[in-house]
Amino acid sequence: MDYMEDKMKAVNYNPRLRLHLFIVLVVSALISIFFGGYFTRFFIAEIAILSIFAMSLDFLAARGGLVSLGHAMFLGIGAYSTTIFILNLGISPFIATILSLLIGCFIGLLISYFIVVLNGIFFIMVTLALGEMFHAWVFTSELLGGSDGISGIIRPDISFMGIDMNDPFIFAIYSLLWMSLIYFILSRITDSPLGRNLDALRQNHMRLSAIGGYAKVYKIIAFTISSGVASIAGSLYVQLNGFISPELTHWTVSGEGLIMIIVGGIGSISGAILGASVVYILQHELSNFISWWMLIVGLLFILVVLFMQDGLWGLIEKLRLRLLKGKNKI
Amino acid sequence: MSNVLLNVENLNTYYGKSHILQGISFSLSDNDCMAILGRNGAGKTTTLRSLVNLSKPDSGNVIFMDENLKNIKPYYIAEKGMTLVPENRGMFPSLTVEESLSIISQYNSNNLWTLPKIFELFPSLKHRLKNKSNEFSGGEQQMLAISRALLTNPKLLLLDEPTQGLAPNIVNELFKALSSLLKSGLSIIIVEQNIKMALNLANKVSVIGKGKTKWTGSKSKFQNNTGVQKEWLGI
Amino acid sequence: MTLFLLSAGLTIIFGLMKIVNLAHGSLYMIGAYIGLSIWTISTSFWLALILAPLFTALIGYLLYQVLFRHIQIADPMRQVLLTFGLIYIGLDSVRLFWGTMSHSISAPNILSNSIIVLGESYPSYRLFVIFIGILIAALLYIFLEKTKIGAKVRASVDDPEMAKLLRIDTDKILIYMFALGCGLAGLAGITVAPILGVEPGMDMEVLVLTLIVVVVGGPGSLKGALIGSLLIGFVDSYGKVYIPEIAQIIIYAVMAVTLLLKPNGLYGR
Amino acid sequence: MISFLFRYFKLLITLPFLFCVANANDKNIIKIGTLLPYSGVYTVLGEEITNAMKLAFEEQEDIFDKKIEVIRGDTEVKPNIALQKARKLISSDKVDILVGPVSSSVALAIRDVVVQTKTPLIIPNAGANVLTREKCSKFITRISFSNHQINAPMGTWMANQGIKTAFLLAPDYAAGKEMMSAFRDNFEAGGGSILGEEYTPFRKTKDFGPYLARIKNSGAEALYVFYAGGEAINFIKQAHSFGLGDIMKITGAGWTTSPLFLPAQKDAALGFIGSLNYVPSIDSVENNNFKKAYIDKYDRVPSEFAVQGYDTGKVIIEAVKSLSGDISNKEKLASAINNISVTGPRGPLTIDKKSNNVIQNIYIFEVVSGDNIPELKILDTIQAVKDPGSGCNL
Q: Of A109, A325, C255, D8, which sits with the fewest C-beta atoms within 10 Å of its C-beta?
């Protein structure tokens, strides 16, 4: 079995390229926000939020070595708890986001305590089942609006600062700020001793387990952080769209998130943002033109999985190396 | 002198991103028994796995009976006459002994090894045909593992730590059987912690340290070379 | 029993080949649609019952040759995503070939009436489905436990590396077993078509349930798939009726409890 | 390092401009944006509605020299996707009228955007009561039905038929519950009583056996049921094979035996009594013409979904006509839509000013055997049924 573990792919890790890519993505997003219209601004905000979700999956997969097909549950936890905080308890949306983060972390901690001991395939199945359980519960819960969901959720009101959150321009910036914050936090963790330990754990499962229960602790830490990040994404999502419905917690949402990080390149963090942007734009644009876009998207997914081991990140890295070489010759 | 059976040239194998084998070379003739020695983690197991392509070498050549084994599947290598008895003995918990022995394809009728001959070598197996192998003691498992390997009609048998976890009297019995195998014309490569036992059997020794072949030679030269023994084996 | 046919196929693929096949539901759907076409053209249900699984197995064979061969040793994540892509493709290709309408297949005349069982009238086609399930279970049992090829298959499950060292061509065994697993999915699709109809979306409805059965039963264990499908099927059908408050989550709870007590499933190795 | 950054920029800077291209607004084109499922499991409904609406537009050559352009927005039946498509249709494509959606959760998701941007929305299917009650708006007009509107008359009608006891069965989601409670209210008001009810997990119930056993033993005179899609087919077939129809009347919301599902349900559906806002057997000039045109073009009998799409098209045409083609003022357009009364295939339609929900006839039908596929025979017509929603001050 240890030979199987061995074949897990090496993680993309290159802090400088990571930062470059991040800056490029943020700048192009800013350009779109400034020059784009109403729709574009919403679109960018949505991509930023999806990127946060993708980063949470990326962190879990790359640092924890865990693949979750139930992470949409944490999107749902963040989204529904924010909704309840805002609508039922009248808590300000910004604080609601922070509280949702804490709730997400707590539930993540609780769940991971039981499930991180499971190995690869079982872990995937259990997260899938847990996510579906949550979905089924939300779908029929009267409190949470059942299948129709809840609408009419307001955005953070900071009009005392002279800023109107209902302006998509402002909200897009707000989402980008959150995305950047999470990017920097996850980057810091990745570069820290904790991140290195997590990486060691992932790369050589067997050897670290030799030093006792620490492996489990690290996995729990990774899962908890990742759950919290996903909850933030859920919380922002509600504030962006003003409604929440159970569709957000379906396992296919987690699957699409995984596709995003595979397309972007696992482990590179900013690759997750790139992947989220590319996959989302692609789906959106394709479904406007052809009704059998799923066929094309499915094919592309398969091609990426088969032939682009490191996703777009790998492509960029290769390109960069080639450019470097070319430059040195001159 | 007999013919060269196996020639290993500068084998390099990666395990994930870590470079485990960084240059393994040795050669083996017909009816040789080579002991591969080295400290824990030196790369002995990986060497054996690389020979049968279970771990694919990144560079270097394994030439077995004048054929380069690069990109040949383990299944064909086994068919050609080289097989491995791994450290964990590779038991099939869901199969009975009889099934374990019967699944090995025997195409040609002039096989050296048949079931009766196996039972001659390891009489105790005969009485346990209907048992499942996970109910066995370590010694019985090892016998079953070697029997299975013999049924593939190998020219060269690779043994990874065959005595690990066995009681001393069983170890003796096992080595008796192994030396009778050698007499019947088989070649053996053995990786063994119990250096003394291994040297009883072997006529050649290869020492591996940090993934590289450090020393190769005959048993007598090895026994006289205390320098090598001390530096790489800590004896 | 449908659940058993599906789970048996998936457990073979999942347990034997360590492939997480999320597209298993799609193969079930495609099996049903192929059956539908054969039934429409030939008007013979029996022909559809025989040919649909064969075609599905053929699709499985091709899928393996083209896709899975390359990722067999790769990490589960890639398998998950690859088969996730296949779900998309499956859904759209069914739509392109057969349209979006719901269809149904009539049971053959001799099975269209009801039979009195234990004082209750019971549709005879349902008994037929149970019969098919038992038949397949028995055939699979004999095949896997009593034949030499079956022993080779089990050896390849237990320790594929060792099996290779013993001159067993595990690659060949894997591909045929994959095709067999897919064929069983197709058989499940066509067998239940007269009861449950044929429509887009039927893939997703069974997928999660099937995965749960396999995990509860223990991947790679036929007995586990049988017991697991009976257990989950029973809990699912009757739990919904008698304890509707928790109907939606009860099967997941069963799975969670099983895994907490036995992390490898009821009959896992 | 800076030069590298520039290299990336060149690659990625083009990306944002994909979205910056705003469509020029041509004064002579009326843009209709649809928000309907064109992929996923509800595709068939999206197609029926779009096909029939286009049929209505084709019958009308042009209106005051204006051409009608339909821009499709695929909701994938996912509220978040639908919301995004709504924003795109409104702000990038600058559509004049939105048509959609099919499912209520999607409708609720896009509701606020529509109201904020003052874009007239015509709902051709989604039935959640709340859409024309608490969440109603002068920009939202429902031409299809409210869940209450279809089921309530059936409660009264069955009580009047002398049926005293009933059992309720529906999928466990918002629409299922709304329909059952509408029926229950009127049935109980008419003197009937409900002996039991079951809600089955939505789209997850394959085997109705255990429920059927329970219903059989309940002793009720009638079963009142609502299912759609595959569940409707399965339920009808399973109820038939269990012989439920021999013991009690099987009745329900009419979608359970929609013309879309009858080819698959066949004779198993015979004897089912349901209520719906349209059945193909309505004998009127409008319906016969429509049926003929639809069958000619799409080679199948139109369903109630198609009719709702067709009427949507009619309403749009009439509204544009009533404004003499000037649709630049969206508030005027919205109120024009709400003032329309037309006679469509399902009969006369007007919009209830208190809720912006359509006032229409409800047909009680029985499934009887037809040439090849069973047909829906009208037993009774309840004239001009309203949704009781009235809180909407427009």
A: A325
